[in-house]
């Protein structure tokens, strides 16, 4: 049942037409939990609170699958604006971007040009730019662009997903160039031809790539809420004398705040991935897919809202 829910929500998150439609009409039921605000100006309040509590931050403007050049331009300007607001507010944050919102759907060259603008501005303001990893098809151009630009810029990083078979090889290929990598399990629906089908296989591969990257001596961001994986990293730290300066844990805004705080209290670096923006559909669908209980919370909220509306109408009719 939970596998079915997961696959359904992942399918919904990746449907381009639904994305376009839903981002125009989607209500924000339940999204507040996962999204810090509609604009960076609104989100900055929450970002400051997180920073004051000692957590590190990654900020991301929500949006994906943009194929209209005007919209791509707007998205690029929004990322630059976001960096400007963070710089002026003296927030020490990274930003994350999705290449499908920066022009990859139009052409590789357009995404490259926009990324160069963003990286140049980031270099000036001392802001690191992380490229999120999207679906399997997109991953080839994403890695190509990352490799190309990491020869020109140091303030760049990207993500590798443990659920893809090819990830171990990708990691090995990148390892000599001292890459800045966030390692995650993978949040996109893929076929068995390209990705491990079971959680056990994904978790095993996740452990392998984390261990390998740490033993290569490369800085490693571990993006997970999985306590078993976190304990595995703590064991590696002890058995292989890995310095805490060589890795950090990353978690999503609004998820497992208890764990975020307890790790931070233990002295680990913890970074929170804070999304903002109105185009929440794809992001929210992926969060629902990851935890079926979130789906039931959402249904409860919608039901409550409908019942409240009905009661108000009944009262008004009665009066
Ligand atoms: P897993 O899914 O096994 O969950 C372990 C436990 O965490 C659950 O039992 C539950 O307690 C909690 N949990 C997980 N998800 C939850 C949710 N949505 N709501 C409530 N509780 C939840 N993926 C990708 O493909 N490309 C990317 O660029 C990124 N970037 C990224 C950045 C950061 C900072 C994080 C933390 C994650 C990503 N991801 C990602 C998403 C990642 O691939 C993965 O889908 C999620 O992190 C969920 O997997 P976990 O490792 O948390 O384990």
Helix and strand element order: HHHEHEHEHEHEHEHEHEHH
Tally of individual helices: 12
Corresponding CATH architecture: Alpha-Beta Barrel
* Strand content bin: 5-15%
Provide the structure class.
alpha/beta
Mean pLDDT equals: 90
Low-confidence stretches: none
Write a structural description.
The chain has 319 residues and is α/β, with parallel strands linked by helices. The chain has a single domain (36-279), classed as TIM Barrel. It contains 12 helices and 8 strands. It has helices at residues 2-14, 16-25, 40-52, 69-88, 108-125, 136-150, 167-174, 199-215, 227-239, 257-265, 281-290, 292-318; strands at residues 56-61, 93-97, 129-131, 156-161, 181-184, 220-223, 247-252, 270-276. The chain has an 8-stranded parallel barrel, surrounded by 7 helices. Helix 1 packs antiparallel against helix 11 (281-290), helix 4 runs parallel beside helix 5 and helix 11 packs across helix 12. The model has no long low-confidence stretch (mean pLDDT 90). The structure holds dihydroflavine-adenine dinucleotide (FDA). Dihydroflavine-adenine dinucleotide binds at residues 132-133, 159, 161, 182, 184-188, 223-226, 250-252, 255-256, 273, 287, 290-291, 294.
Key terms for this structure?
54% helix, single chain, 319 residues, binds dihydroflavine-adenine dinucleotide, TIM Barrel, eight-stranded parallel barrel
What's this entry about, in short?
The protein is of the alpha/beta class and 319 residues long.
Topology:
Layout: H1 2-14, H2 16-25, H3 40-52, E1 56-61, H4 69-88, E2 93-97, H5 108-125, E3 129-131, H6 136-150, E4 156-161, H7 167-174, E5 181-184, H8 199-215, E6 220-223, H9 227-239, E7 247-252, H10 257-265, E8 270-276, H11 281-290, H12 292-318
Parallel strand pairs: 1-2, 1-8, 2-3, 3-4, 4-5, 5-6, 6-7, 7-8
Helix pairs in contact: 1-11, 4-5, 8-9, 11-12
This protein binds dihydroflavine-adenine dinucleotide.
């Amino acid at each position: 049942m939970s596998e079915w829910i997961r696959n359904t929500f992942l399918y919904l998150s990746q449907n381009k037409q639904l994305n376009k439609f839903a981002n125009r009409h989607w209500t924000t039921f339940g999204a507040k939990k996962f999204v810090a605000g509609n604009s960076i100006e609104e989100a900055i309040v929450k970002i400051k609170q997180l920073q004051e509590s000692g957590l590190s931050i990654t900020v991301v403007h929500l949006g994906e699958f943009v194929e209209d050049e005007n919209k791509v331009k707007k998205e690029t300007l929004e990322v630059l604006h976001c960096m400007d607001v963070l710089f002026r507010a003296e927030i020490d944050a990274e930003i994350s971007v999705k290449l499908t919102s920066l022009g990859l759907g139009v052409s590789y060259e357009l995404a490259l040009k926009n990324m160069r603008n963003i990286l140049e501005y980031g270099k000036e303001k001392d802001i690191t730019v992380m490229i999120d990893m999207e679906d399997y098809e997109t991953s080839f151009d994403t890695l190509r662009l990352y490799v190309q630009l990491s020869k020109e810029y140091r303030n760049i990083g990207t993500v590798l997903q443990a659920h893809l078979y090819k990830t171990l090889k990708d990691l090995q290929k990148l390892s000599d160039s001292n890459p800045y990598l966030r390692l995650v399990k993978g949040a996109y629906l893929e076929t068995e031809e390209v990705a491990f089908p079971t959680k056990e296989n994904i978790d095993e591969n996740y452990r392998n790539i984390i261990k390998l990257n740490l033993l290569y001596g490369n800085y490693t961001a571990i993006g997970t809420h999985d306590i078993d994986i976190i304990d595995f990293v703590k064991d590696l730290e002890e058995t292989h004398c890995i310095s805490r300066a060589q890795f950090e844990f990353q978690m999503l805004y609004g998820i497992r705040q208890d764990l975020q705080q307890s790790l931070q209290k233990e002295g680990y670096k913890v970074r929170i991935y804070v999304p903002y923006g109105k185009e929440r559909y794809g992001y929210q669908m992926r969060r629902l897919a990851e935890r079926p209980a979130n789906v039931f919370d959402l249904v409860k909220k919608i039901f409550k809202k409908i019942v409240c509306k009905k009661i108000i109408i009944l009262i008004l009719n009665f009066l």
